[in-house]
Specification:
By secondary structure, the protein is mainly beta. 4% of the residues lie in helices and 45% in strands. Strands 4, 5, 6, 7 and 8 form a 5-stranded antiparallel beta sheet that branches. The two termini are 37 Å apart.
């Protein structure tokens, strides 16, 4: 190639980069999904992140009912993974806690939702609150604590086979009961996809199961927490056999190790600067950990470079009214999305239900730039669950 021709192509390449053409021009936008949890006509609120500003683009019915409760008591709303997506970001599932079903949606390349054939699907129990996906198996936690149905008393765990297109096969593969009133809260799946962890919140126990290839959940551990601290949020380390647990009543983050069968060993509990630590997440590398702290409406950030010795490096109060609950990192881990509820009587009725977006700083993992939108739900409704995908 002559020098002149080479120079011509280099100039063209420079213009392409400068104009943002080709692979550099692809706008990377997150689509964020929040469940309204309406008692009637439950729905998924669909937001787009416009450079740190959240814009509501659609509301899609789930075909079921949420749960309505003005008592503000612990129980029906203490759960995580109410809304989840598959690893590819092509299918979304959400609980219909008031009508005992799971809604399933196909996620388009633009982030829009369309119901899967047969949705909603029976949850295999009553008052489903949490979902976990392990390859082609869906794990469902049925809490059985719907305030509009006070006679419910049998929580359970169910598993279902997933079709290649995301549809849930009829009938559970397996169902296992939990103690009445124990308030199971989460279906945390280990990074190896073979273990399922749950916090029985009001029971004060951690549970672990080995997920067999046929969908059977084999109980492996049933362990009371130290000092009767009530456990809530769980998250397993993405690379190591470590489980992090929020001890909500003592404001501490607990660290457990586990073996290949799911047997847990308590290591330590470290302080949390917030009040009522709840849900927990790590980044994909396992070097940073985030917690939502409900009572003081805050987010804490931990350095977990040494994963057995988490060190809190930030405590940020969220703006506005509300109580921080479920949250998720965006697909590129550059944003953190937090759902707040009206979960205290100090917040006026009709206020406190919001979705926040925080910028995550690549170098430190700390968060800043809190912006939020009010969620348009009826007074007394408490939205729950959040998931995010990147527009493809």
């Amino acid at each position: 190639m002559s020098p002149k021709i080479r120079s011509f192509f280099m100039c063209c390449a420079t213009v392409v980069v400068a104009l943002g053409v080709g692979r550099y021009s692809t706008a990377q936008t997150d689509v964020v999904y929040v469940e309204s949890n309406r008692a009637h006509n439950n729905s998924i609120l669909v937001f787009k992140n416009d450079g740190g500003n959240l814009v509501l683009s659609n509301e899609v019915p789930t075909g079921g009912q949420g749960v309505f409760d003005l008592s503000l008591k612990l129980g029906p709303f203490d759960s995580d993974q109410d809304v989840v997506t598959n690893a590819e970001g092509t299918v979304l599932y959400a609980v219909n806690s008031g009508s005992d079903s799971i809604a399933g949606f196909k996620i388009s390349r633009s982030g829009s939702l369309s119901p899967l054939d047969g949705s909603p699907f029976p949850s295999g129990g009553t008052n489903p609150v949490s979902l976990g996906i392990s390859r082609d198996t869906l794990v469902v936690v049925n809490k059985a604590m719907d305030p509009s149905r006070p006679d419910l008393d049998q929580p359970s765990y169910s598993t279902f086979s997933l079709e290649p297109d995301g549809r849930i096969e009829a009938g559970p593969l397996f169902t296992s009961p939990a103690p009445g009133g124990s308030s199971p809260s989460q279906a945390d799946i280990s990074s190896g996809k073979r273990l399922v962890f749950d916090a029985q919140f009001l029971g004060g126990h951690l549970r672990s199961f080995l997920l067999e290839h046929d969908g059977t959940l084999s109980p492996e551990d049933f362990q009371a927490t130290p000092g009767k601290a009530l456990p809530l949020g769980l998250w397993s380390h993405p690379k190591k056999p470590i489980l992090y647990v929020g001890f909500v009543t003592v404001n501490k983050l607990a660290v457990y190790t586990f073996d290949s069968t799911g047997h847990l060993q308590f290591v330590r509990a470290v302080p949390n600067s917030g009040k009522a630590i709840c849900w927990v997440r790590t980044n994909a590398a396992g070097t940073r950990l985030y917690t939502a702290n409900t009572t003081d409406n805050s987010i804490s950030v931990y350095d977990t470079t040494d994963p057995l010795h988490p060190a809190e490096i930030q405590h940020l109060l969220l703006k506005g009214l509300g109580n921080a609950l479920q949250f998720t990192l965006g697909p590129r881990e550059d944003y953190l999305y937090v759902v707040t509820q009206r979960a205290a009587d100090t917040i006026p009725l009709g206020e406190g239900n919001t979705l926040h977006v925080l910028k995550v700083h690549a170098a430190t993992g700390k968060v800043s730039g809190d912006a939020f939108v009010k969620l348009d739900v009826p007074a007394g409704t408490r939205p729950q669950g959040v998931a995010a995908v990147q527009i493809r």
